[in-house]
Amino acid sequence: MTEHFYWIWAIFFIIPFISIIRRYLRKRNMQNSSKSSEQYHEMQFKTNSSKIETPRQNLLEPEPEPKHETKDMQVFEVLNHGAGNFEKIQEITGIKHDELVSILEDLEKRGMMKVEEKSGLLGSKIELYPTKKGIKEYYS
Q1: Whole-angstrom distance, CA of residue 136 vs CA of residue 76
Q2: Which residues neighbour 76 within 8 Å (Cβ) at sequence distance 6 or greater?
Q3: Residue 119, H or E segment
Q4: CATH (domain of 82)
Q5: What are phi and psi of 119, to 5 degrees?
Q6: DSSP state, residue 30
Q7: pLDDT: is 63 or 69 the higher one?
Q8: Which domain holds residue 90?
Q9: Within a domain: residue 123?
Q10: Number of structural domains found in the chain
Q11: What is the pTM of this model?
């Protein structure tokens, strides 16, 4: 009965052997590509002064959103990108504590964000979320 299962042992030896061969070939290609990449960088920085290419704008890609200049919109942008607590927002925007508190209170009064207080094992946790009204106002 064990004579018929030699192919199983072959599979257990072939799969690791194939991965070793792939790793070896990848390493070998990396060594060869480092020489060609040096030549590529040399050719890339040699410029022809008579032919200067201007960058073309891809029409399929959307234009980057304009940066909002007001601090409340900067805070809402950070909030909209996933910073859900006070410390993260303060770290990213660099706004002082008192000013950030007043901005967050203003955003909450205007209905652009909601505040949820969650209780956990380590105490209460306050999370900030943008509302649909706030997202509409932000993108308009």
Answers
A1: 12
A2: 68, 107, 112, 113, 130, 134, 138
A3: strand 113-120
A4: 1.10.10.10
A5: -105, 140
A6: H
A7: 69
A8: 71-139
A9: yes
A10: 2
A11: 0.49
